Amino acid sequence: MKLDKELIVLNLEASSKEEVLEVLGNLLTEHGVVKEGFIESVLQREKEFPTGLPTEPFGVAIPHTDGDMVHDSKIAFASLKNPVKFAAMGGSAELVDVKIVFMLALNSSQGQLDMLQKLVGLFQDPGTVEQLTAVSDADQLNRLLESKT
Amino acid sequence: MKKLLIMCGTGIATSTVVKGKVEEWLKENNLSQEVKIYQSKVSDEIGRIDDYDVILSTTLVPNNIKDKVIDGVPLLTGIGIESMYEKVLAEIKR
What we know:
A: alpha/beta; Mannitol-specific EII, Chain A; 5 helices; 5 strands; B: alpha/beta; Rossmann fold; four-stranded parallel sheet; 4 helices; PTS_EIIB-like_sf (chain B); PTS_EIIB_2/3 (chain B)
């Protein structure tokens, strides 16, 4: 599994989840992966259906929205210098300190859903989550993703 | 045949992940023949929730259907999977 280099942001300094979502959403918009309005749609959806996952040792978030906002199925990645709070997925109303964000631009194409399935496998291993927060360049990230999926 | 519904906010992302894992679990427990899986988004199902025997959701659901829905997030985080499957099994066997 590999992510496009231009859709990877490492050690992002952000003070809120909105900031992270805008940075990643802008990347996806600039590269023609998603339609105008994708960011607003993700922000709105995050309010209704939050995507923070309380994984160990840090939380992971997988923001996304409906497939009709998406041209190409791709995934953008950010590791955060300092954690930001996302609301937890599900009904718990907890807040999660997130250091890893995979922004999913997904339509229903099967390949990308397989990828999501593999990603979720990664999050369940604390060692891998730790490694994801520490990668220093895109190649290292892709090598890590390839070795684990 | 029991009807098991898996829902998320969009009906394509996390529900697909949960579906894959539940299918494996059903197979391992020799329950594949007893359960049929449906996948959907919450907003499409609110009006017909009583059609299903077991419901797993990765997202918040309205209060009026809350009691019928099992939280599927453990399958995404890896935390609390066993107790979640206990609830699913109880509903299948009910």
